[in-house]
Amino acid sequence: MAKPERPPAQPGPASKGPSGKDAAPEKAGGKADSQGITPRAQSYSEWYLDIIKHAQLAEHSSVRGCMVIRPHGYAIWEKMQRELDDRFKATGHVNAYFPMFIPLSYLTREEEHAAGFAKECAVVTHHRLKSINGTVQVDPESKLEEPLVVRPTSETIIWNTYKGWIQSYRDLPILINQWANVVRWELRTRLFLRTAEFLWQEGHTAHATEAEALEETHRMLGVYADFAENVMAVPVIRGRKTPGERFAGALDTLCIEAMMQDGKSLQSGTSHYLGQNFSKAADVKFLNREGKLEYAYATSWGVSTRLIGALIMTHSDDAGLILPPKLAPIHIAIVPIYRKDDEKQRVLEEADNVARELRAQGLTVKLDDRDTLQPGAKYYEWEMKGVPIRIEIGPKDLEKGMLCIVRRFVSELAGESPEDQRKRKKSFLPRAEALAGIKDILAAMQGELLDRARAQHRARTRVIDNLSDFERFFKEEGGGFAWVHFGGDSKDEEELGRRFETTIRCIPFADQIPEAARGSGTCILTGKPSTHRVVMAKAY
Predict the structure, then answer these.
(1) I need a surface site. Which of 103, 336, 368, 494 has the fewest CB within 10 A?
(2) pTM of the predicted structure, to 2 decimals
């Protein structure tokens, strides 16, 4: 089908942006001006921060190490919340809320837990301010009898609460989730990935038997893995942490690990089997079915706003943010194009009708009728923000009964030029056909993003059997996920970390191990016998 003639855009900059639309020119050296993004090949870390800035996801706060999550970024988090919350409730969990202040004595009841978080804790020691010599200062007479720790995680205060809820096996299980903020006083921070304060959910469950608690630990890791792959379009490896990487106070920590475009790993969810450690610390006993007193068995599990960082680094490109449709706050942006007043009325009326019909399908639509921006600026903004589909409507489209559909992402074809790919993102369809097929386009984009992420994962994964190949992989080839035999202890693990800046991301579950990585072997560092491989990588 021949493309309909497009009406001329309103006057604007002469140069073209990422989709061939009006945009600002680039500076020499590959760094665009205030509207542009540092190319990934030039600086991956700058590219990441540029995406956050120009997609208006978050910004640094005036408070050290903290961030302001802007509306577009928070809307993504809200979509994540809804998806996860539905999954939690489908598995029998309910939401509650517990105090953010934890008495210091609570935290220190579980020694390993206290030691694990000691360096990251923010502590409240006074309860009021006072005007002294014309300045507001901490009132020295307001010192608390016991310092309060600002919540780094909630196991201790929740289990102190459970002490009053649990007397009998009939009170179990308790399946509670909390949506909250936490504070961990990080020295080095990066937006979404590591901040002094961040948002998360934390599940805390109590069980009558070890078997039930272990089943819960694995069930919730499965929930996270399903969410990552089927909603975030991020492939993950499921496994358990080494003893040195376990959650402080846990007997076992399960995790999902995702590979970012630069080959580094991002821990994207954890589920902990806590045994009876926290019930013993809080003295939570119950009368079991045999009429004997027993300590309850515990789990905890959580994900945080770092998942937004995972989205950025898995899917986005040098043109801006790319979002899987299931997490896009706006599915479709409609941009009306006109030059004359009589065109404006007709175009806006059609744009409004299209928006209403799409919303009736359950889709989120933004009709961008701002008259303060040229169409090219609008194209650029919605592309930068990762909106999956843009619909352009002009007078010629009305006459021909067509809609211009522009996809934010299409799968790459072998040998295809960037220009050809940009052309393939745009299609002109009869109005009825376009509206009827929008959901199919979104579903296809969701699947294609997962396929691309899986291909990236495979391309940067190696089965490695000796230290020289391991060194070459990380120091010369750019790294990724290395499947290696490891038979050493925590000191050997630390030595590999010092030499190659790698960590053991997980000991993968049996069903996660590819055929080429199965079987026994020898540790790449010590030469000791090894029955299984681990996944090693550089990590965020």
Answers:
(1) 494
(2) 0.91
